[in-house]
Specification:
571 residues; alpha+beta; BirA Bifunctional Protein, domain 2; YbaK protein; Rossmann fold; 3 domains; nine-stranded mixed β-sheet; five-stranded mixed β-sheet; 27% helix; binds ligand 9G3
Length: 571
């Protein structure tokens, strides 16, 4: 490809709205352009990288015996009503009417469509297991699209769905996909972790893992043990909490005391000169619209996912001060469990306290010497908090838990019969008995992978593509396009490299060298060959983008350097 014809405009500055480095670089390096919030065009360089990711995904899906299909984005509302999800999703689900006023959704995912397809096409156990996949555009009207391709409203996903005759079969399909994901993310040269995850709204009936690319910009928190392989999304992570028996009832009787304007943990800690761990923090949540109190120790945070799952609810939100005022007739900051006529969930760390400070449900008053069980009933004690860094691993009980920020690039679920039952996807088993298919579903965010790879592979000057995903492998830069000798050498080198299956971009623009080098650093092609005045001695400059190593080599050496590199990364 000749850069003088390539649709590529690099920007010196990135638009102020771009906060994530991957977003800034993809805009500046001419990989994407924004059409609307969360909606992007892939320019030629971006499309070439995306196609390489697709190619890796297809190869590994095919290797895992999944069959590629392509399902429509226009999904009849009837299907979403059959699954009962049409009313569950709000404005995030993009809905439209066709010319006959029939309702459709623009597909955010395809459980309903694929189950309706398979229920019509498969009726015998002999046709199972069956795994279908597609690479297709998804639509989700995110309230806050941000970080470029990381959280878009229209994005490319590989979504796969497995159908088995029994749970054992699903287990086999699940781990086959899991292994394929490891190969895919390995080939994308991503630093990632597979973590135990919360099934979320999709409600898988048997476990789910997320694949997290480690990156500071990541919205998820990955909890890993520094000693064993334990890794979990913070939403689900636990620690090896030993429920100690509360110390003997040494604490005095409960006592109310005046705490004027002491509303927050910090204010209490400072003015009473206590530890935050001595405080019983009472938070009020609206869970599916119902007020529920959750008690955690003052140095812990409530884990809303754990609370929601415990109560089997769909929605949870922290009651704000107005809600608390109208619910409890007092301002936030003095709520406590004693005399509180709400359902109370108590984190088990609190259950072990025996001399706590808690709100007195009276403005400007708290209780001290509070002892759970003695002073307030605990309807429900359980794990309702986020683990903290430094706690002990729940698996090996020795390793220390460490946190990382992660970008969710993949998610695999054991669905069970959640959709096949509702949509009657059944088959006749070997004894002719009708059975419900057992499903799994498996997603990879292809657009997100571009962002994750850049977040993990860039420097001050721009992107540094891994060889496996680079839009081109070699960037040939003649210093002077009017120098016939240099241009001839560039063309010969290009022909020689292409003959070896290497993808080459020639910067044949009539630009100053400095501009060419800056652009080359920005777009991140792994290898660069500069053809300058040394060309007459048959020498060219060979530069590796990642470590900026420069060598003056002959044409042949330049080619063999690249071929050697390819050989040992393929090895
Ligand atoms: C919706 C909307 C947004 C959604 C969903 C439905 C996420 C929804 C979960 C999944 C589960 C798996 C197959 C590939 C892997 C992920 N956001 N999910 O179901 F209507 Cl608006 O998509 N689907």
């Amino acid at each position: 490809m000749r850069q003088s014809t390539l649709l590529l405009t690099t920007l010196r500055e990135s638009p102020s709205e771009a906060e994530a480095i991957s977003h800034q670089l993809m805009l500046r390096a001419g990989y994407i352009r924004k059409l609307a919030a969360g909606i992007y065009t892939y320019l030629p360089l971006g499309r070439r990288v995306l196609r390489k990711v697709e190619q890796i995904v297809r190869e590994e899906m095919d290797r895992a015996d999944a069959q590629e299909v392509l399902m429509p984005a226009m999904q009849p509302a009837e299907l979403w009503n059959e699954s009962g999800r049409y009313s569950v999703y709000g404005p995030e689900l993009i809905r439209l009417r066709d010319r006959n006023e029939r309702e459709f959704a623009l597909g955010p995912t395809h459980e309903e469509v694929v189950t309706a397809l398979v229920r019509n096409e498969v009726n015998s156990y002999r046709k199972l297991p069956l795994t279908l996949y597609q690479i297709q555009t998804k639509f989700r009207d995110e309230r806050r699209p941000r970080f470029g391709l990381l959280r878009g409203r229209e994005f490319l996903m590989k979504d796969a769905y497995s159908f088995d005759k029994d749970w054992e079969g699903l287990d086999h399909s699940y781990w086959k996909m899991f292994d394929a994901y490891n190969r895919i993310f390995g080939r994308c040269t991503l630093d990632y972790r597979a973590v135990e995850a919360d099934a979320g709204s999709i409600g898988s009936e048997g476990g789910t893992h997320e694949f997290m690319a480690l990156a500071g910009i990541g919205e998820d928190t990955v909890v890993t043990c520094m000693r064993c392989k334990y890794a979990a999304n913070l939403e689900k992570a636990e620690s090896s909490f030993r429920t100690m028996e509360p110390a003997a009832s040494m604490s005095a009787e409960i006592e109310m005391f005046h705490t004027p304007d002491l509303r927050t943990i910090d204010q209490l800690v400072k003015s009473l000169e206590i530890e935050s761990a001595d405080i019983i923090n009472t938070l009020v949540y609206l869970v599916d619209g119902k007020a529920v109190a959750v008690l955690v120790r003052g140095d812990h945070e409530v884990n809303e996912t754990k609370v929601k799952n415990y109560l089997g609810a769909d929605n949870i939100e922290l009651a704000d001060s107005q809600m608390v005022k109208s619910l409890m007739g007092m301002p936030i900051g003095f709520i406590g469990p004693i005399g509180l006529n709400l359902q109370i969930l108590v984190d088990k760390t609190v259950a072990n306290m025996n001399d706590g400070i808690a709100g007195a449900n009276k403005q400007d008053y708290h209780f001290r010497h509070v002892r759970p069980e003695r002073d307030f009933k605990m309807d429900h004690a359980g794990d309702f908090r986020n683990v903290t860094e430094g706690e002990t691993c729940p698996r090996c009980h020795e390793g220390i838990l460490k946190f990382y920020r992660g970008i969710e690039i993949g998610h695999v679920f054991k669905l069970g019969t959640k959709y096949s039952k509702k949509l009657s996807a059944t088959f006749l088993d070997s004894s002719g008995k009708e059975q419900v298919m057992i499903m799994g579903c498996y997603g990879i965010g292809l657009s997100r992978i571009l962002s994750a790879v850049i977040e993990q592979n860039h420097d001050e000057q721009g992107i540094i593509w891994p060889y496996s995903l680079a839009p081109f492998h070699v960037h040939i830069i003649p210093i002077s396009v009017v120098d016939e000798y240099q241009m001839k050498a560039a063309e010969e080198l290009r022909t020689h490299l292409i003959a070896q299956g290497i993808e080459v971009l020639i910067d044949d623009r009539d630009e100053r060298p400095g501009v060419k080098f800056k652009d080359s650093d920005l777009i991140g092609i792994p290898f660069r060959i500069v053809i300058g005045k040394d060309a007459v001695q048959g020498k060219v400059e060979f530069i590796e983008r990642r470590n900026k190593e420069k060598q003056l080599v002959s044409y042949e050496e330049a080619a063999s350097c690249i071929l050697d590199f390819i050989k040992n990364i393929k090895a």
